[in-house]
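sorry to bug you again but im stuck and you know this stuff better than me. theres a chain ive been looking at and ive put its sequence and its fold in token form underneath. id like you to explain what the token line says about the fold, in plain words if possible. anything you notice is useful, everything is just below.
___
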Amino acid sequence: MSLLDLVVVGAGPVGLAAALEAERLGLSVSVFEARRPAASIERFPARMPFFSEARKLELGGHPMAVLGAKPTREEALVYYRRIAEGLNSALVYRTRVTALEGAQGAFRVRFQGPRGAGEVWSRAVAVATGYFFNPRRLGVPGEELAWVGHGYRDALEHWGEHVLVVGGSNSAVEAALDLWRAGARVTLVHRGPEVRPGVKYWLRPDFENRVREGAIRALFSTRVLRFEPGRAVVAGPDGEEALEADRAVVLIGYRADDALMRTAGARFEGARPALSDRFETSVPGLFALGSAGYGEDTRSVFIENGREHARLAVRELARRLR
């Protein structure tokens, strides 16, 4: 039986950071990705810039080439996929890890890919599955209707439409501005009395000025009761109101995909796995990297600090295997 030192589940930036560190330290590693490398970034709106500077998103000392101060969705995708192409270890994409069994020294990693099911064995496993494919839902009637979504591809596709944005954090505020600049008529609905305090300092005044001048309508202290074909029924300080719209975008956060860790027997504290200071779960040899270890608290972890999680975890593993 061939035994790897490490299996990384997820080929986003944090998973790639773990693979690079493992290679640097001489560990044998395979990376499994259910879609394509950095697939979560595909879900960003077209041309959307990152909040962080390029140097804070770089992996393994490889510089990221960008035209502006901050990378766009497209620039980041090109960068991370070139990192993936340059790995010396195996990258198995379009293949989903379906189960983890065992503990440090002998994990059985089961997977399902285009050619069927299989398994590999590894001394350790690092879960870096992120959260972008697991959006939080309002849980109201009609949320499954075709005109209601949890993201959008390109703001320019919504020119001339009335778009309802639900949420009050960075993603919702940025979406409202992006859609408005692309020619959409935008109404933002948020259950709080104002957008969240953590909204980026350059977004807040831009948004507030657009609301003040009437370019964007903002309904605060308002919640969505239900979606119906072509309209949302909301309740605010003045009672119920039916908002007719062409598109609704619900952006109220995300939740980490923790199914693998739960089935492997990891202990959880609320929505988060219990982790050591080296991001190891209660199952010896099973690590949770980046947002995979943060449950619904996705505002506390980014590529910038998630890549550090990867380094610490892999260095701890290498120390044990010496």
Q: What stands out?
A: The helical segments are 13-24, 39-42, 73-85, 170-181, 203-212, 259-263, 303-321.
